[in-house]
């Protein structure tokens, strides 16, 4: 089995920390206990390298590459597909790729080609069925406690619950992304299709203020109730 780990920088994984811990502490040891050898691949280049890459040709010459684009992710191309393809070329057709695409993901299934096979589709297992199988095997990532998808913590496709979790529980990683947002000379300031990280930060700050206000209000109500009982 191949696991390709995209790195944020040379020392920090691109995985949400809970998911990375799950991979190395639970998933890989269990698979190897079952006799399945796991090979970990990493490209020498990282997300930070890609973002800071200086464009040398075309109308954006002299700018840095900046945030990856939705639907045209250079991180997917350079930090994930490239090391996998390099690994496969060394084996010259010996490898059949079993891709984890469920039977009800038709848009993704039609893009499979060559020696790429979905066993989930072959045996008629949809997304809900795959979720149940992972849960029964003890191989359900904790990421699904707060998100309905898994991706790098810097993914432009990340939904608000994922970004909320990152900011709340991994503020150091969130701060690193804000540092990248502050870099000048990017082709676009948007982190995703519509918003900058500053826009998202404002939304999450407003949510935090509202949560604190509600907590204070609830605490006061409880104190008032307790006081009334004592009287």
Essential attributes:
single chain, 231 residues, mainly alpha, two-stranded parallel ribbon, two-stranded parallel sheet, 9 helices, 4 strands
**What's the SSE pattern?**
EHEHHEHEHHHHH
Q: How are the strands of the biggest sheet laid out side by side?
A: 1-2
Q: Determine the N-to-C terminus distance.
A: 67 Å
Q: What is the β-strand count?
A: 4
Low-confidence segments: none
Average pLDDT works out at 92
Taking all Cα atoms into account, the compactness measure Rg is: 22 Å
Number of helices: 9
Instruction: Indicate the structural class.
Output: mainly alpha
The helical percent reads 40-55%
Shape: globular
Overview of the molecule:
With 231 residues, this protein is mainly alpha-helical. The longest helix is centred in the C-terminal third of the chain and has 34 residues, at 197-230. α7 (160-169) crosses α8 (171-181). The mean pLDDT is 92. It has 9 helices and 4 strands. It has a domain at 2-147. The strands form 2 sheets. Strands 1-2 form a two-stranded parallel ribbon.
């Amino acid at each position: 089995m191949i696991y390709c780990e995209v790195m944020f920088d040379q020392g920090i994984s691109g995985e949400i920390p809970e998911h990375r811990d799950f991979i190395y502490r639970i998933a890989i040891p269990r698979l190897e206990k079952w006799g399945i050898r796991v090979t970990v691949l990493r490209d020498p280049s990282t997300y930070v390298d890609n973002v800071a890459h200086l464009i040398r040709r075309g109308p954006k010459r002299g700018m840095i590459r900046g945030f990856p684009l939705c639907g045209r992710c250079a991180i997917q191309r350079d930090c994930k597909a490239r090391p996998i393809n390099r690994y496969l070329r060394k084996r010259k057709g010996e490898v059949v790729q079993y891709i984890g695409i469920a039977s009800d993901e038709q848009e993704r299934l039609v893009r499979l080609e060559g020696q790429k096979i979905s066993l989930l589709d072959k045996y008629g297992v949809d997304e809900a069925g795959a979720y149940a199988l992972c849960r029964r095997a003890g191989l359900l990532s904790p990421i699904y406690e707060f998100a309905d998808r898994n991706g790098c913590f810097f993914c432009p496709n990340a939904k608000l619950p994922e970004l909320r979790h990152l900011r709340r529980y991994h503020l150091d990683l969130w701060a690193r992304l804000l540092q990248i947002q502050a870099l000048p000379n990017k082709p676009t300031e948007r982190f995703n299709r519509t918003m900058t990280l500053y826009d998202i930060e404002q939304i999450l700050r407003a949510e935090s203020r509202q949560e604190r206000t509600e907590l204070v209000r609830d605490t006061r109500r409880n104190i008032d109730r307790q006081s009334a009982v004592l009287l």
